[in-house]
Amino acid sequence: MSERGEDLPGESMVTQLGKTEIGRRGAVWFGRTFSFRSGLRPTRNELDMSVLDGRISVAEVVSLICIGDDGGLADAVRYALVSDLKTKGFTVKHSPSKTIPIHVSVTYSGEWDADIQLKFDLCFDQFGVHGGTS
Amino acid sequence: MSDHVHLEKGRDPWLPSDESELKQVYHRFTVPLVGLVVQHGVPYVFWCVVGHAGPESAWAYARLDTASDAAVLESCDRNEFERALTTLVKDRACTFALSSDETGILESVDIDPPASFDDAFQRGMHELQIKIKETQAEMESLMVRYESIQSVRTFDIAPSPALL
């Protein structure tokens, strides 16, 4: 297990869990939309953005985070290079916990406002969004 | 003191009322997902049932006899955590809540014991549907008794012409 507070190398990837909304009428699907947390609210105990160390499948991510829940169509993941996050001013540090040994914390030294949310989201654009399949 | 936790609409699930104190977080991913809150000295363990990554989520709360009952969630290893939580909340009085990242707790319902980790979502949604149907029936009844309510039923909110 990595040491808490240790920086991740730039060439590493991180994975964030999100959610899929499936638009459908009856049995016909007409679209999927994805949602991911991109901002923090420090006044509400949100001190860092949680991601996972590595490029990890939806099923694996769900098994780590969603205790008692199985991965499925409602789940999605997206990936970012640590170097992209660091270039945009984020710090990316190992913060392993008992339940999530590969937990990584992303923080920003200033206010995590709408501009920073956009910067954070852009870091994940390169590798697309991957939805659950079962 | 009730067996059921007191939840206030608009509050974060991990700090569900003004009198709540978040004592311990056992599992988190940006937000606390499993933890211990205390209200007026009474400990409740809470856990996210679905929607761990937001923006909407469902939560369950179970009253413990003492805060030290939750120590098993600290002492167990990672592979035992789900089983420890399941055992800890088995057969207890439970409260189920729906929440959104934007608004906080939206609605909640008490579930009589025995509740369990595995059926909290199913039972919670079922009880919420009953609660909503009861509210609708009460509204219908009021509209029969008071015609003035019936007459404003189809009113919509529109900007005042003075503001246009």
Structural commentary:
The complex is a heterodimer of chains A (134) and B (164). With 134 residues, chain A is an alpha+beta fold. Helices cover 17% and strands 35% of the residues of chain A. The radius of gyration of chain A is 15 Å and the shape is globular. Chain B is of the alpha+beta class and 164 residues long. A 6-stranded antiparallel β-sheet of chain B has the order 1-2-3-4-5-6, with helices on one face. The model of chain B has no long low-confidence stretch (mean pLDDT 86). The A-B interface holds A 16-19, 35-37, 40, 44-46, 48-50, 65-69, 75, 97-101, 103 and B 12, 14-15, 22, 26-34, 47-55, 77-78, 81-82, 85-86, 101, 117-118.
Helix content of chain B: 25-40%
**Number of DSSP strands of chain B?**
6
Q: How large is the share of residues in beta strands of chain A?
A: 35-45%
Helix percent of chain A reads 10-25%
Q: Low-confidence runs of chain B (pLDDT<50, min 5 residues)?
A: none
Structural classification of chain A: alpha+beta
How many strands, what sense, and barrel or not for the largest sheet of chain B? Answer: 6 strands, antiparallel
Q: Specify Rg of chain A, calculated over alpha carbons.
A: 15 Å
User: What does the overall shape of chain B look like?
Assistant: elongated
Query: What's the gyration radius of chain B in Å?
Result: 19 Å
Order of helices and strands of chain B: EEEEHHEEHH
Please report the number of helical segments of chain A: 3
Task: Jot down its keywords.
heterodimer, A: 134 residues, alpha+beta, seven-stranded antiparallel sheet, 7 strands, 35% strand, globular, B: 164 residues, six-stranded antiparallel sheet, 4 helices, 6 strands, elongated
Quick take:
Chain A contains three helices and seven strands; from the N terminus they run E-E-E-H-E-H-E-E-H-E. Chain A is of the alpha+beta class.
Topology at a glance:
The complex is a heterodimer of chains A (134) and B (164).
Chain A: E1 13-25, E2 28-35, E3 49-53, H1 58-65, E4 75-81, H2 82-87, E5 90-94, E6 103-108, H3 114-122, E7 129-131
Antiparallel strand pairs in A: 1-2, 1-3, 1-4, 3-6, 4-7, 5-6
Chain B: E1 20-29, E2 31-39, E3 42-50, E4 56-63, H1 71-75, H2 81-89, E5 92-100, E6 104-115, H3 120-145, H4 147-151
Antiparallel strand pairs in B: 1-2, 2-3, 3-4, 4-5, 5-6
